[in-house]
Amino acid sequence: MTMPLRKTRGGWIISTLVCAGLVLLAVTAKAAPKRVLIVHSFGNAAPPFTTHSTAFETELAEKMKEPVDLDEVSLDVARYASLDMEEALVALMHARQAKWQPDLVVPIGSPAGIFVARHRDRLFPESTPIVYTGMDISRLPAGAIERNAAFVGESFDVRGWVEDILQIAPDTTNIAVVIGDSPLERLWADVLKKEYQPLAGRVSFTWLNDLSLEGILQRTKNLPPHSFILDVLMLRDASGVTHDGDEVLRQIHAVANAPINGIYQHQLGLGITGGRLYQGEAEGVEAARIAIRILHGEPASSFQPMIIGPLPPRYDWRELQKWNIDEKLLPKGSTILYQTPTGWQKYRVWIIGSLAVILVQAVLIGVLITNLVRRRRAERSLRESETRVALATRAARLGVWELNTKTSEMWISDRMRELFDLEPGAVVDLNTIGNRVHPEDRAAREAAIDRAIHGLGEYEIEYRILRPDRTVRWISGRGRRMDDAHGKPTRVFGVSMDITERKEAEELFRLATEASPSGMLLVEQGNRIVLANAHVEEMFGYGREELIGRPVETLVPGPFVSGPAAGRELMAHRKNGSEFPIELGLNPVKTPGSTLVLATVTDLSSRKRAEEEARRQREQIGLLGRASLLGEMTASLAHELKQPLAAIVANASAGVRFIDGGEIEPSALREMFADIGSAGRRACDIIQSVRNAIKKGSSVRGQIGINSVVTNVALMVRPDAAVYLCEVETSLTENLPVIEADPIQMQQVLINLVTNAFHAMSETLVAQRKVEIATGLDDHGFVRVTVRDHGTGISEQTQERLFEHFYTTRMDGLGMGLAIVRSIIEAHGGKITAGNAEGGGARFDFRLPAVAKPRG
Amino acid sequence: MDESSLTVSLLDDDPSVLRAMTRLLRSAGWMVAAFESPPTFLEHAATHCFPVAVIDICMPVMDGFEVQTQMRKLSPGTQIVFLTSRDDSSTRERALTSGAFAFLLKPANADELLSIIESAARKKG
């Protein structure tokens, strides 16, 4: 194998094995730049080690106050691991020492560390210090650290990886381990298998290290229920193809049917759920700091091995949501990132458009921030970046600012000045901005920024600003903290956007929603509630905050499918566990991003109650019918009974006569007896029916208000009124004295009068068919009720006999109604009269004595 | 005495009462023409001659008083005996002032009823 060499600036770059050399050199520098050789394990684009090396190089470039000549060599063991290759590489590196003697060697990753430690004697003189980084300390050969070396790395808690999974998904029974098939990965696979042996009873492991990437994707697509994927490392798969581990993670995330966890901080956001994640970046930064001090003359042996532990647990909210992982299961002190805050969630449908814009902007800013942080090359000046940010944000009409937390210096974009109405060119600080914020929102905003600086690292808040011209604008602010390698905040980067129009629209939407006479729910595709109005809170007994984000099944059972808008009657659940009937109307709402379902919820309880009440009243009318029958029967009992009795008596007498005359045929006699028998039975039936009628109705008197009787009757006769196309109008005098009466009998009287009125108007034009019921007090202190119709009126002849038994003008009537009415009224000490009303129609008037003292 | 003079017409909307009354009158030697409905009765009266008609008062379509009014025109010589279960003073008064031969309440005493019919038949208008 030939290795073409190219001489450059006194250093050698091995073009096939070594990445392009990098020289950070100030042209004006007088001293010879320090030489640093980075030994990569897998090339410079192999996550997770890329994180370490990028952070190391960036920090070194930024913090070293003098030029550094940086060179890199890669073992690329993922691809070429073999002893032959190692020998060739040793020879090559030994050869280049003659030309380019490094002042410091930095192996990144355990293969590089092992290689350097193993060949230390042949590669570098003992005086050349070494900083081992990006590896588990247990991987480093014994004694390596003692030989003029420092160590910045991790000590993996491999069981912790499984514990983290079981913590958030306790029902996990299977863990699929994603790990490649390079020598290093094989080694780790063996370590893991051994370490996980004791867990076999608790959870089974599926090892994917013998599969190609395609095979791994296939398997992770079809994992059994209660599976979790543990993404350890993917440098080279079993088919020998080298991969970018982060890209592999993205691909698995796209297809997997189970949640995924990884090991490193940088994987959070790429599709892992999260847990205690290792900090490749911090390792790189710390290694760079030690490197600088060594380059400045401090002995490498003076540094204690530095183990960088995992971060406190942090999680990706989107993954937790996606896999329904309850936040309660997260360990105390967990950080949840990528969360959509409630404020944004609440009115998502309305703001979805603007949100999309903001998200794009946020991503854009995020990319720019990332660029700022990960800037590998020092040649990109801050000014250039600012220019880019300014260009991008101007396009998006975002105000941008950056705060140096150490110096409190603040830079703000022109748009930001415009937003907050600040003088162009005037120096601003956090207070200048803060003073523009509406006094009511000031504290909340400051607290959010403060939390971002001292805790969460990010904030997002909506607040009002009060501009000098007294106009109020709504601002949406987002910010992110930038930390140094020690986790100390250095800067806060923020964006502000004018959302006044959106807020106003939201407010309109909110008012419209709140004004809706029905309960309104907005449900996203995953059946989670994104909006609920006050009616819904009232109906179901939940606070809005409790409902947002909950599955809609909390309220309504069964699949919540958007079907035709036609209403469906369902039983719904209140918070207190009770059920109530609702009518549900579902309407799909299409937005560019998704389809939501707008549900209108109508509480049917009151309607059902009214229906129940109406049914009960109808039953009571039935009962009244029987009571009325009782009246009729009592009055005509004699008449009814005398018919069969007459037949019996006549038959018996005839029989006696025939027998006496001696001229009767037995068959004729038989007929007579049969008739006597059936007449007797008929008499029995009549008596029985009277008894039945008596059972149902018994008079109970009490002190009652006539107005409530009238109101009830007006309701009761409504179905009949509809049949006869009549209108019933009541005109009640307030504060009437009570009467001593049987309310059922009073109802009977009124129903009778009103029903008669309906009948009397059969010839009247429909538009004029009206029954008017009025109550009042007459001159003698009697309570008076008038029922007036617009029918043909009462003829003089009829008027005389109106209240007589059996008098009826109707073919189908028995003529007992008014007789009973009269007897009831008279039994109550009252009087009923009938006559013709002015303007036509009949008018019935009854008066009842008032109880001397009003009730109560 | 011709056959028609030995005939009594009965009008009662209750068939069981009608059958029983028919038997009672026959047991006393009367010929009986029995009718359940007033119009049929009146049709018969228009073409036949009979001395006595026993008529129920409470009937649908047409009550006994109305039948009596019609009978005055159709067969003024026929004596009307009201036989009813409707026991109230106004009915009684009205029946007696209407020119009826007798007003009897159901269930009537058989002997009394038969003797009244016999008297009515003898009176012959």
Which terms summarize this structure?
heterodimer, A: 856 residues, alpha/beta, 5-stranded antiparallel beta sheet, B: 125 residues, 5-stranded parallel beta sheet, 5 strands, globular
Describe the structure.
The complex is a heterodimer of chains A (856) and B (125). Chain A is an alpha/beta fold and 856 residues long. In chain A, the strands form eight sheets. Chain A has a seven-stranded mixed β-sheet with strand order 3-5-4-6-7-8-14. A five-stranded antiparallel β-sheet of chain A has the order 18-17-21-20-19, sandwiched between helices. A five-stranded antiparallel β-sheet of chain A has the order 23-22-26-25-24. In chain A, a hairpin with a 2-residue loop joins strand 1 (5-8) and strand 2 (11-14). The N and C termini of chain A lie far apart (115 Å). Chain B starts with 6 loop residues before the first strand and ends with a helix. In chain B, helix 2 (38-47) packs parallel to helix 3 (64-74). Chains A and B meet through helix 21 and helix 22 of A and helix 1 of B.
Order of helices and strands of chain B: EHEHEHEHEH
Category from helices, strands and their pairing of chain B: alpha/beta
Secondary structure: number of strands of chain A: 33
The backbone outline of chain A, from C-alpha atoms, is elongated
**Structural class based on helices, strands and sheet pairing of chain A:** alpha/beta
- How confident is the prediction overall: mean pLDDT of chain A? 78
What is the terminal-to-terminal distance of chain A?
Answer: 115 Å
List the helices and strands and how they pair.
The complex is a heterodimer of chains A (856) and B (125).
Chain A: E1 5-8, E2 11-14, E3 22-24, E4 34-40, H1 49-63, E5 68-74, H2 77-80, H3 83-97, E6 104-108, H4 110-118, H5 120-123, E7 130-136, E8 149-154, H6 158-168, E9 174-179, H7 183-196, E10 204-207, H8 213-221, E11 227-233, H9 245-255, E12 260-261, E13 274-275, H10 280-295, E14 306-307, E15 314-316, H11 317-322, E16 335-337, H12 342-346, H13 348-374, H14 382-396, E17 399-404, E18 410-412, H15 414-420, H16 430-436, H17 439-456, E19 458-466, E20 472-483, E21 489-498, H18 500-515, E22 519-523, E23 529-532, H19 534-540, H20 544-547, E24 568-573, E25 579-590, E26 595-603, H21 605-661, H22 666-696, E27 702-704, H23 706-716, H24 718-723, E28 727-731, E29 739-741, H25 743-760, E30 770-777, E31 782-788, H26 796-801, H27 817-827, E32 831-836, E33 842-849
Parallel strand pairs in A: 4-5, 4-6, 6-7, 7-8, 8-14, 9-10, 9-11, 11-12, 15-16, 28-30
Antiparallel strand pairs in A: 1-2, 3-5, 13-15, 17-18, 17-21, 19-20, 20-21, 22-23, 22-26, 24-25, 25-26, 27-29, 30-31, 31-33, 32-33
Chain B: E1 7-11, H1 15-27, E2 31-35, H2 38-47, E3 52-55, H3 64-74, E4 79-84, H4 89-97, E5 102-105, H5 110-123
